[in-house]
Amino acid sequence: MDFMSDQLFDGRPIRILTVVDIHTREGLSAHPRANFRAAQVVEVLDQLVRARGKPKSLRVDNGPEFADRLRDHWAYLNGVEIDFSRPGKPTDNAFIEAFNARLRAECLNASWFLSLADAKERIEEWRCHYNEERPHSALGNLTPSTFANQAQPARELA
Predict the structure, then answer these.
(1) Considering the domain 2-157 in this protein, what is its CATH number?
(2) What's the pLDDT tens digit per position in 16-41?
(3) Which end of the chain, N or C, is surrounded by fewer C-beta atoms within 10 Å?
(4) Model pTM?
(5) Vertex 44, ends 38 and 133: CA angle to 5°?
(6) What are phi and psi of 87, to 5 degrees?
């Protein structure tokens, strides 16, 4: 889980909450907002839990966005371990860093967002393309969605 920053055409800033499943490499969330409060981060996490189930852990960096009691309370209530990366060590969270680099190069740098709604639509289109149409060599040249679908029976047995 990480945050990225960008801006609309008129210079208004936006923040993008990104969440990646490190096993399947799926981009689970690339959610833009004008800003994020702790309750909104928890809301996104709750949506992901409803759709995918509870993770065992969340890897986050040490940014101020992740140092809040509400998120910690959510993790405690859901039995989710928070795994903080070491300050100045982006390699601790390499999968999200790689996802964010692709999102930046292929979507954010290539787009001129006219509104927050426009940003949400284009970023979600890119995320779907990333998950459903783009093969990954680390997954045997399968797309993340295909790999996740093949792994689902094993996940249910576990």
Answers:
(1) 3.30.420.10
(2) 999 999 889 999 999 999 988 888 88
(3) C
(4) 0.88
(5) 140
(6) -55, 130
